[in-house]
Amino acid sequence: MPMLSPRAACCGLILIFAGLAQTAPAQTESTEARPAEAYRTFYLTSLTEPYEANEIVADLRSMLPAAHLYYVSSEGAISMRGKPDEIALAERVLADMDRKRQVYRITYSIRESEEGKPAGTRRIALIVSTGGKTTVKEGSRFPIASGAADAKTAGESTQIQYIDLGLNIEASLEGSGDGLRLHSRVEQSGVSEEKSSMGSEDPIIRQTRLEGFSTLSEGRPMVLGSLDLPGTARHQEIEVVSELVK
After folding, report:
1. b vs e for 92-126, b when ≥16 Cβ sit within 10 Å of the residue's Cβ?
2. What kind of fold does domain 38-97 have according to CATH?
3. pLDDT, tens digit only, all 246 positions of the chain
């Protein structure tokens, strides 16, 4: 076996140590410890509807894409696995969102007048929770006959369709106290005495609609608006007042 000169051996040792120096950082980086993950279960107290909980889980997944979140509907709970800082952020978000909701009684008063004379007042009360929506319908279903060609009899067959007529009120709430924000939609519809030019079986449907946002102070009435009913001499004024139930 050929013997290496002292100088060649020294150069070989230098090359070996240089190679170790280059590979050492890579080994240190690959073995560096990552932050440990933790597991946590959050039990919901106010967000009891499945769609509400699913929306919260979807928001948390967008905020924390590396974490794992699951909604267990049978337990009303959200299970989560992630880093400690991710779990801490989720806890803060849920503390802000999963709050006890206040419940209000929202009373709509519809005052009617005809030719300047009072003609009566209708009051409709709804129970609405903050962050929720309540709808009430009052009226009847009106039949409308429609014709269609019948190939078998070479004539026309009559079909009956129904439309909802009457009063329809939808209310949703956000906020609380003097900062209560109400979204209202009040619709009224009915059959006009006027006849349609299309035929006696084609009625004219009259409809009025009032929709908008308003900020309420508890116990203080607020006029949402007033309108003249088309085709009549009647006038309506719509007022609303809120009352805390619990």
Report:
1. ebbeebbeebbebebebbbbbbeeeeeeeeeebeb
2. Ribosomal Protein S8; Chain: A, domain 1 (3.30.1370)
3. 455 555 544 445 444 444 544 554 544 444 455 568 899 999 988 776 777 888 889 999 999 999 999 999 888 899 999 999 999 999 999 988 887 778 899 999 999 998 889 889 999 999 998 888 899 998 888 777 776 555 565 556 677 777 778 889 999 998 876 778 999 999 888 777 666 655 556 677 778 888 999 999 888 999 999 888 766 788 889 999 999 987
Each domain of the chain, given as residue ranges in start order, spans: 38-97, 103-244
- The residue written with tokens 């349609």 in the block is 196
